[in-house]
Amino acid sequence: MRHLLTSTALIFWAGAALAQDAALLLGTERYETLGRLSRGTEILEAADELRGLGFEVFALPNGRAGSTADIARDWLERVPEANRLVVALSGRFATDGARSWFLTAEAEGPGLLNPGAAALPVEGVLRALAEAPGRSLLLIAVEPDGSNSFDPWVGEGLGALEIPQGVTVLTGSPRAVARFMQGPLAEPRGDLSAAIREAEELEAQGYLPRARIFMPERPEAPTAATPEADPAAEAALWRGTVALGTIEAYRDYLARYPRGANAEAAEAAIAEIIAEPDRDARLAEEAIGLSRDQRRDIQRSLSLLDFNTRGIDGIFGPGTRQAISNWQQQNGFSQTSYLTPEQISRIDAQAARRAAELEAEAERQREQAARADRSFWDETGARGDEPGLRAYLDRYPDGLFAETAADRLALIEEEKRRAAQAEDRAAWDRAREADTIEAYRDYQRAYPEGSFKEEAEAKIAALRQEVAQSDARAAAEQVERDLGLNALTARLVEQRLDAQGLEPGEVDGSFDEATRRAIRRYQRAREIEATGYLDEATVVRLLADSVTDIVNP
To answer: Of 41, 42, 83, 305, which is the most buried if we count CB atoms within 10 A?
Structure first.
């Protein structure tokens, strides 16, 4: 980036340039980060008036550092040969009290020791104007809103100006300065001193004689018109600018075509890029072209790593973006919330390792639970009596020997039926057919010492438990429905359960009681609430080993 004018270095060129009045007009309305300044470019409307009075005008709206440096340098080349000098600066200024700077459109926040290359020193402009004493005029349009404080020593506005001898400085609002430039200042052979005294909205400093004719008569022959830009060249540059899509590209376009057909669009694009600090990261992730299934895999992996994505739906909403940011922070990456191929691979590898660790721990717990299950069976159901079988099923309703215990109890009940008297057996059959708590109580009242006393007590206990669990079951059913699993995923779940020896029944994508029992066994082994229904935690763990790897683009 080129450096702008400084207060200590001026360059003079002798020679070829003809003597001509020179005006430098810099107006900024659209700042990239410092906000909009109403009427900031209105002073540029005086350019034609000045040309008509014989001035060579160097005008730039909304200039960035590079283009401002170029046009200021072009104006400075004319200073040694010029008869009259006019400089008008309209925009935001910064000051440390002693020094002042005019801020270009890309300026952010000048500091005491480093005002930055995007700032034009007002002292340098005054030093150049001092080369034409009595024939130099500086107009400053400034209207600070007081909202910008750049550091503890530098704030917005103008400081005290040390005005060289023979230089006149006028200060006012952008509108007041623009009106003065298009009116009294542009009057041929007008008394500038009288016009300044009558301008109540302007503050005058420096060289202020009682009377001064500043502007010459209007030349009879018109000055050469400014050559028009080549529309085809501008269109080609704009296409290249949009293709690059960077702040630098848009600034280059504005430097070349500050009043171009796409100047508004370029300003809007710069504002949009600045407003989205992670735009490059977002575009890089979009370039990967992740499918919805791949996004689900990433969400599942993040969930497995305990980064809550608030759902596994293949949509990267606020929950997923926050989970990605948290993962990036923990792994030493910039917290953009957008992924790179390297990060995707790392997440996948970490999830695979975590899945293996969890499965190893689950296997250890499963073996421990199986030993306890077998030990309890040996002491209860293995003896084959009814109390032992019921004690086993009460402790392990989905245990390793649950089906065996249920079958043996069925045989015991059948034997009791054969041995029971006809009335006892008929009463029991009626209770079984109704299968309600009240029906079993009726049986107990009628036959307090009946052959099916224990079965009635077991049925009442089971029904009470079922009633108590009905609300929880309904909630679990709804959670599973909300997952929106398709038939392919359901079959995959059954395959994973079957591969682990949990006996889910037929692998057909339809969850029957055998499947529910297998899910409960799986959940218990992994210390997940054993509902027998799928939830996000169960699916994440169950499908961890079947996550499709994402191939790095």
So the answer is: 41
Nearest CA to 387 out of 373, 405, 404, 402 is that of 405
Q: Is 444 exposed, middle or buried (0-12, 13-18, 19+ CB in 10 A)?
A: middle
Of the candidates 31, 100, 113, the one whose C-alpha atom is nearest the C-alpha of residue 65 is: 31
Is the confidence at residue 303, as pLDDT, over 60?
yes
Task: Yes or no: say if 376 and 392 are a contact pair by the CB < 8 Å rule.
Answer: yes
Amino acid at 39: R
Q: Using DSSP, state whether 155 is helix, strand or coil.
A: strand
Q: Which residue is it, tokens 């392919």? A: 488
Can you tell me the distance from the alpha carbon of 322 to that of 316, in angstroms, rounded to the nearest whole number? 10
d(CA 264, CA 266): 5
Closest CA to 148 of 36, 4, 274: 36
Of 171, 180, 182, 174, the closest CA to residue 40 belongs to 174
**Dist. CA 515–CA 124, nearest whole Å:** 84
Pairwise CA distance, residues 432 & 455, whole Å:
10
Partner residues linked to 100 by β-bridges: 95
Q: What is the pLDDT of residues 56-67, one digit of tens each?
A: 999 999 988 888
| 437-446 vs 453-483: helix crossing angle, rounded to 10 | 180
3-state secondary structure of 379: helix
Distance CA(95)–CA(93), nearest Å, equals 7
Tell me the residue type at 140: I
- Give me the residues paired with residue 30 across strands: 36
Cα–Cα distance list, 443 to 386, 417, 463 (Å): 19, 14, 15
Strands (E), 47-112: 55-61, 85-90, 93-95, 100-103
Write the CA distances from 338 to 122, 126, 281, 318, 343, integer angstroms. Answer: 43, 49, 6, 12, 9
Up-side HSE of residue 316: CA atoms within 13 Å toward CB? Answer: 20
- What's the whole-model pTM score? 0.52
Query: With contact defined as beta carbons under 8 Å apart, do 39 and 72 qualify?
Result: no
Angle CA 284–285–290, to nearest 5: 140
Q: For residue 539, which of 528, 552, 525 has the smallest C-alpha distance?
A: 528
pLDDT in tens, 430-461: 988 998 989 888 988 988 888 888 888 888 88
